[in-house]
């Protein structure tokens, strides 16, 4: 993932603070199956009710389908999702674990008092028991 994508995710988190932001990670899964390459992000509006946006995000099915269609038009796949944690660490919550899917990457950006801080990537274990941190390598 290039610095540009990390910066775009951080900026989205800062814009939506104190609410959670969310979006898609677009790219490709390595042919060897040993990693993912994120070449673009696709911001999505948080569809949660106003009072719940601070601690939860929701991607409407039609917005997910639009993002998948956009990715396909560029020869890309959805390789994961991102969201922010306002005034909380960049660590997935139990709620995040309950609603995640294996194989995808999940980037969480911590936004403290309106400023993006840590940005970490996570992948769920295949048995759905926990997340493991993924290393984010610098891309071009």
Write the layout of secondary structure elements.
Blueprint: H1 3-16, E1 22-29, E2 36-44, H2 61-73, E3 77-86, H3 94-99, E4 105-112, E5 115-124, E6 131-134
Main structural class: alpha+beta
CATH topology: Cytidine Deaminase, domain 2
Tally of extended strands?
6
Instruction: Summarize the biggest pleated sheet.
Output: 6 strands, mixed
Main sheet strand line-up: 2-1-3-4-5-6
**What is the CA-atom radius of gyration, in angstroms?**
14 Å
Number of helices: 3
Shape: globular
Full CATH superfamily name: Cytidine Deaminase, domain 2
Write the H/E string, N to C.
Answer: HEEHEHEEE
Poorly predicted regions: none
At CATH's second level, what is the architecture? 3-Layer(aba) Sandwich
For the record, what CATH class applies? Answer: Alpha Beta
Helix proportion:
10-25%
Distance between the termini: 7 Å
The number of distinct structural domains comes to 1
The percentage of residues in β strands lies in: 35-45%
- The average pLDDT is 94
């Amino acid at each position: 993932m290039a610095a540009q994508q990390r910066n775009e995710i951080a900026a989205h988190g800062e814009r939506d603070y104190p609410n959670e932001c969310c979006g898609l990670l677009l790219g490709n899964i390595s042919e060897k199956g040993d990693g993912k390459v994120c070449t673009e992000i696709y911001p999505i509006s948080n569809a949660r009710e106003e009072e719940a946006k601070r601690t939860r995000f929701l991607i409407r099915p039609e917005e997910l389908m639009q993002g998948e269609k956009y990715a396909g038009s560029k020869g890309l796949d959805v390789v994961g999702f991102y969201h922010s944690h306002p005034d909380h660490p960049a660590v997935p919550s139990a709620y995040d674990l309950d609603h995640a899917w294996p194989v995808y990457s999940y980037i969480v950006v911590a936004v403290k008092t309106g400023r993006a801080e840590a940005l970490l990537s996570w992948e769920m274990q295949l048995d759905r028991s926990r997340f493991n941190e993924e290393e984010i390598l610098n891309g071009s």
